[in-house]
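Researcher: Re-running this chain for the archive, since the previous output was lost when a drive failed. Same request as before.
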Amino acid sequence: MKGKFLGFALGLALAVFMATYAFAHTPLCSCYDNGDGTITCEGGFSDGSSAAGVVMRAVDSSGKVIIEGKMNEDSEFTFKKPGDDYTVIFDAGPGHAVEVPGSEITE
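Model: Regenerated structure tokens:
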């Protein structure tokens, strides 16, 4: 009887783990220079989830926040280009952040 219970408990634990893994999603974010002094970033998740409301930050080389906002209902965030040495951070929480160096953002 003890062996059957242990087998059931292990099976249940494995099922819960696999279900959690199946619902995992990877954050995605890409940014481009609009050519008019602004940058637009588009975000989402690998499972197709919207990024509306996800916190967006631009930080300088020392990590100081210079711009902060949130993705709109279309999962986009547009801001004035802060100069040349910055990084954009798509921050959807622990383990769900994407950093895009300003040097990689092109028209």
